[in-house]
Amino acid sequence: LKSNPNIDLKCFDPVNSSPARYRDYMGTVLQRKRVENDYFYNTLATVLQRNKEDECIWSAGEEYQTKTRMMMVEKYEYYHFCNECIGSENELPLLGNSF
User: How far apart are CA 47 and CA 91, in angstroms?
Assistant: First the structure.
């Protein structure tokens, strides 16, 4: 996708912004659907709830977490793109009040 001249890839930081902010921002860019699907968002919120205390990486040291992040950036194109994009001019302005 990065090499397609007809596509401008953007990103957003999911840790520091909420799904509602992303949805509100995209509402200024795209046409809204006629019928809103609230069930999807309720299901998504339920699925995404998790207990980080049960995940071993969160209880590991900072060095282990950093090595894991770097391994993912090097191995997976998706994470590599995110690593380059977040903090650049291609990051969507979800944290401010104006879009």
Answer: 26
* Contact (Cβ atoms closer than 8 angstroms) between residue 11 and residue 82: yes
H or E element at residue 72: helix 62-75
**CA 79/CA 12 separation, integer angstroms:** 12
pLDDT band at 20 (very low <50, low <70, confident <90, very high): confident
pLDDT confidence tier of residue 26, bands split at 50, 70 and 90: confident
pLDDT for 80:
92
* 40 three-state secondary structure: helix
CA distances from 64 to 19, 32, 59 (A): 28, 42, 10
At residue 79, the 3 state secondary structure works out as helix
Comparing CA positions, the residue from 29, 5, 4, 9 lying closest to residue 78 is 9
Q: Tell me 54's DSSP state.
A: G
Give the count of beta carbons closer than 10 Å to the beta carbon of residue 21: 17
